[in-house]
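Lay summary. Proteins are chains of building blocks that fold into shapes, and those shapes determine what they do. In this project we predict the shape from the chain. Here is one chain we studied, written as its sequence of building blocks.
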Amino acid sequence: MNAGNLATSARLQQVYGILSDHEPHSTWDIAQATKSCAVHSDIAALRANGVPVECRCIGRGRFVYRIAPIQERVAERQQAELFA
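And here is the predicted shape, written in a compact code that computers can read:
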């Protein structure tokens, strides 16, 4: 994959800005806000840039994305280490 660079891509910066509130946002919401026709590709590019984007299916072909707050990620990592 040839991912864009978050530091130089206005499109990726827009998607990052939407997700940075740590709330779930649907593919539709992101597409409407950014005028992107390939939200899934934008999410993949953010992940390639090291952004921990979570995805959850909320129905038939409907997905929401968010960046989990750091506290949640640390707690999950600690729990995984505890049970490893």
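What the prediction tells us: The chain has one domain: 10-82.
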